[in-house]
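So, can you check?
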Amino acid sequence: MHHSVKRSPLWALGLFFVTFSAQAHTGHTAYSWMEGILHPFGADHLLAMVAVGIWSASSLSHRQMWRGPAGFMLTLLAGAWVGSHGITAPLLELAVALSVVLFGALLWASRSAHRHTQPGWLLLLVAGCLHGMAHGSETPNAGFTAYAFGFLFTTTWLHMFGIAVGSLIKRWALHTQTRVLQGLGSSMGVVGLYLLTQA
């Protein structure tokens, strides 16, 4: 099992977390559905959304795992609506980058704390709102609906990808799950720290 895990595509995913870090949040103004689709592929948003899916699948029951992405998208949409009306949080870009670090820590600890999910839920909901504000603050009211549909579409697929990865991890032996999640969490934390230096 040890050697097969090392060859798993999940280790490539961990490497991807590190090498993808150069594509941080762009800060451009967004108007269209297509720009909404493309915007979550910035490293900070992408990693957070994939992490939501992985954490939900690995830490919640099969019936509850969809509540993680649903909660994130609801707060994401609420934050985007608030941001589109000119209301933002102080040091917003710094907070978004910090959420990537915290999601990395959450993945690192998810197996050891899988029966105590309150911190994960809190981070998920707060991060969704902050990421939504970052999206919405770049969107004029006139273009909000089309843009929101676009980034919710991409967010849904990123969550589904994370759930698929987390579900695959959950099939393995407990010690293997722990090692893989710690590897992914550590990689994400490194990327988050880099993004903090760029925020």
Notes: Residues 56 and 65 are 5 Å apart (CA to CA).
